[in-house]
Amino acid sequence: MMLDNYGFLNIIKESFETYLYVGTSRSTAKLKTLHGHIAKDIQEIFGKEYDVESQGFGNDKEGTIEGRYYPKNVDITVLKKGTPIAGYAVKFVMRNYAQNSNNYFENMLGETANIRSKSIPYFQIFIIFEKVPYYKKGGAFQRYDEISEKNVGKYLALSKDNPDTYYHTPDKTLFILISLKEAERIFTDEKDYANYYKSRINDKDLFSYSNKIRDVFDNSVILNDYEKFIRKTYYIAEGKTK
């Protein structure tokens, strides 16, 4: 059965737990948990006529889409009779957002344009906490990067773009903002942060969808609604294969 919004929140939590134990946001272990469950849902909604390639699902490998400018390994690829007909990119930011936010966004625009210029629908899932820990070189905790309406302005602008006009605009973007229960103290470093949340991972109120920012996004961006996103992306991709 396909995940509902509550189920998707629990899968994000599982991915976070894996990150805490592995100790690096670059680990493919946390990706398999998240990507694999999303791929399973995509397979379910697309049906047996299609194949889905992803880490953590099926053959446990990413698919490749031949873009207009270069071939791109894609987090989740949907294929029909062996030909890619859609791609999904997934980004879960767990640390040092402020210094990398423009790079994340620019890379997303570039990879989207590369694939959509070949008339292949491309979708983005972006997951982030309300407060993202910022660590200095060496791992010492310095501050939180706090997400607000002001610093999601580029996603608001993106939501107003028409994908039929701009190839760099994903056909649909899912923006997930998570409220993580705060500790009642200041952390010293990455290890201290990880140990604290490992000890709290089973708290029922540890994770929730945030209402910190208003849903003022236009059609291209969906806020905190995984079920709606999966349905919309299916209709777009399936419609373009006919």
Task: List the topology elements.
Blueprint: H1 5-22, H2 28-46, E1 50-54, E2 63-66, E3 71-74, E4 76-80, E5 83-93, H3 101-116, E6 122-129, E7 131-135, E8 141-146, H4 153-159, E9 172-180, H5 190-199, E10 207-209, E11 221-223, H6 226-240
Parallel strand pairs: 5-6, 6-9, 9-11
Antiparallel strand pairs: 1-4, 2-3, 4-5, 7-8, 9-10
Helix pairs in contact: 1-2, 2-6
Distance between the ends: 26 Å
Alpha-beta content class: alpha/beta
- Pick out the low-confidence regions: none
What is the CATH level 1 assignment? Answer: Alpha Beta
Helix and strand sequence: HHEEEEEHEEEHEHEEH
How would the global form be characterised?
A: globular
Proportion in helices: 25-40%
How would you sum up the major sheet?
Answer: 7 strands, mixed
CATH architectural category: 3-Layer(aba) Sandwich
Rounded average pLDDT: 93
Output the CATH topology: Restriction Endonuclease
- How many distinct domains? 1
Sheet-strand content, in percent, reads 25-35%
Radius of gyration: 18 Å
Helix segment tally: 6
- Please tally the β strands and state the result: 11
